[in-house]
Each structure stands twice: as structure tokens, then as C-alpha cells.
């Protein structure tokens, strides 16, 4: 099941599209440990929309290095409308990673409804360069990455956004979409 949640007035029109999320966070005051170098082959595939009119989001792998992180992702536009891929279009809409305290689906849903989603660790590099417009029946695949440490024990979800429809969207698709993966990967130290 897909859950669509519209954020508050500051982000009017932005839809967070997800099938799952995470449970309320751990309130422990333990010191955070830096996640160590690691690489996970994930092969995640998630869809938004009805069959025949879908956006397909993939995450092949996530890697944490000594200096930052990298994720191999893809977007397949199986809709009849083009989508503008607009990183940094709005504060909460960018491509990158979000860290959660659990891998449970209810945390994401609860935090989304409450407007308390964690900040996106925004990608600063795209290889190959992210296309500006993803035409119907076209796809983009590449690496997104950024410098900076991630927290061991956190659960990582990949954020795809902002996607802005160029034209009239099919029924049941929003005009503006930020996708947060249903799947989550736990970082270790």
C-alpha cells in the first residue's frame, strides 16, 4: 500500500510517497559512534503509481567510506509525463540519505505525519550527472555521494527528490514527489 502525506504550509504541494516507514525513535542519550567503512548490495526496487503509470526507484548498493558515503540508485519513468529532477528544489526535497533510529515502517509514517522527518544528508555529487528532465519511458542510473560521517546503528533510507511533473500527471500521481525508500539498511561500526 502506498501512503501519501502532504506536509505543512511551507511545503504545500510536496508529496512524500512511501509504502513503509519507521517506528518512533530511541530516546537514549548514548554517545553516537561513527559508522565504519562498509558496502552493502541491496537490490531494492520500489514503485509509485498504478501499473502502467509508475515511477520505479532502485537502490543497488550503499557504501560508507572513510570520508563519506555513496549510493548506486536509479529512476525509471514508466509514466506518460516527463519529470523534472530538481535536487534542492525545496528544503526537504533533495537526493540523499536520511537516518532513522529503527528499521520499522511506522517510524517513517509517524514522523512524516508529524512533520518531523530527519534532515536529508544531501548528495553533493552525481555520476553521471543527474538529468534535468526524465522523459516518459526513460531512466537514469548512477552514483550519488557526499562527504561526512554517518552514525553507526542508524537505519539509512534513500531519498529521491524533488520530482516535479512537466505536464498533467496520471490519476493518483501527485504533481510533486519526494520518495523515501520503504527499505532501510542498518549501519554498523
Uncertain runs:
1-29
Class from secondary-structure proportions = mainly beta
Structural domain count: 1
Helix content: under 10%
Which architecture per CATH?
Answer: Sandwich
The total count of helices amounts to 1
Strand content: over 45%
Outline the biggest β-sheet: 9 strands, mixed
Order of helices and strands: EEEEEEEHEEEEEEE
> Distance N terminus to C terminus?
33 Å
Average residue-wise pLDDT? 84
- Looking at the structure, the CATH topology is Immunoglobulin-like
What's the number of extended β-strand segments? 14
3D architecture notes:
The model is unreliable at about 1-30 (pLDDT under 50). The protein is globular, with a radius of gyration of 16 Å. The chain has about 190 residues and is mainly β. It has one helix and 14 strands; from the N terminus they run βββββββαβββββββ. The strands form two sheets. Strands 1, 2, 6, 7, 8, 10, 12, 13 and 14 form a nine-stranded mixed β-sheet that branches. Strands 3-4-5-11-9 form a five-stranded antiparallel β-sheet, with no helix packed on it. It has a single domain, classed as Immunoglobulin-like, CATH 2.60.40. The longest helix has 10 residues, at about 105-115.
Key features?
single chain, 189 residues, mainly beta, Immunoglobulin-like, 9-stranded mixed beta sheet, 5-stranded antiparallel beta sheet, 1 helix, 5% helix, 47% strand
Brief digest:
Helix content is 5%, strand content 47%.
Layout: helices, strands, pairs:
Layout lengths: L2 E4 L8 E4 L19 E13 L2 E12 L3 E11 L3 E4 L10 E5 L4 H10 L6 E2 L2 E3 L5 E2 L4 E9 L7 E12 L9 E5 L4 E2 L3
Amino acid at each position: 500500500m502506498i501512503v501519501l502525506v502532504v506536509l505543512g504550509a511551507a511545503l504545500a504541494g510536496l508529496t512524500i510517497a512511501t509504502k513503509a516507514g519507521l517506528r518512533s525513535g530511541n530516546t537514549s542519550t548514548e554517545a553516537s559512534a561513527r559508522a565504519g567503512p562498509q558496502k552493502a548490495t541491496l537490490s531494492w526496487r520500489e514503485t509509485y503509481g498504478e501499473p502502467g503509470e509508475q515511477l520505479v526507484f532502485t537502490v543497488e548498493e550503499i557504501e560508507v567510506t572513510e570520508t563519506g558515503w555513496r549510493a548506486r540508485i536509479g529512476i525509471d519513468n514508466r509514466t506518460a509525463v516527463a519529470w523534472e529532477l530538481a535536487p534542492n528544489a525545496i528544503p526537504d526535497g533533495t537526493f540523499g540519505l536520511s537516518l532513522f533510529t529503527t528499521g520499522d515502517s511506522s517510524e517513517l509514517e509517524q514522523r512524516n505525519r508529524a512533520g518531523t522527518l530527519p534532515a536529508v544528508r544531501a548528495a553533493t555529487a552525481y555520476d553521471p550527472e543527474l538529468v534535468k528532465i526524465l522523459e516518459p519511458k526513460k531512466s537514469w542510473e548512477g552514483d550519488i555521494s557526499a562527504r561526512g560521517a554517518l552514525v553507526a546503528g542508524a537505519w539509512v533510507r534513500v531519498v529521491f527528490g524533488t520530482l516535479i511533473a512537466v505536464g498533467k500527471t496520471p490519476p493518483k500521481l501527485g504533481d510533486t514527489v519526494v520518495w523515501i525508500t520503504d527499505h532501510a539498511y542498518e549501519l554498523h561500526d
